[in-house]
Amino acid sequence: MPQPPEPLEEELRVVWRNAANTRKNTAHRRVESILESSRAELALRELFIFFTHMIKAFFMLLNAVLHSLSGRNSTPVKTDHHEDPAK
Fold first, then answer.
1. Which domain of life does the protein's organism represent (predicted)?
2. Is the pLDDT of residue 77 over 70?
């Protein structure tokens, strides 16, 4: 046999009030947890970007060194930039 609506409504109000109080009490912790994970995610993203730039710089430097070394091994082409204009 179903209960009259008033006690059920009152019980439902109590349950919802408790749930609302629980959400209010844990809101600060939930926000802090979200912020902490966001900070960690940002830190990882910044580290990834930093290491990407470091790797690019390393390969640019390596390319410059190899280009410099390959230029030393080839025979230099002599050009006379100081030609006599009287000729």
1. Bacteria
2. no
Residue 2: predicted pLDDT: 57
Give me the DSSP letters along 49-74: HHHHHHHHHHHHHHHHHHHHHHHHHS
Q: What is the pLDDT of residues 16-53, one digit of tens each?
A: 888 888 878 888 888 888 888 888 888 999 999 999 99
Q: Residue type for 83, please? A: E
The SS3 assignment for 3 reads coil
CA–CA dist 64, 74 (Å, integer): 16
Whole-prediction pTM value?
A: 0.47
Which residue, among 49, 48, 51, has the nearest Cα to 59 in the 3D structure?
Answer: 51
At 86, list the tokens.
């009287």
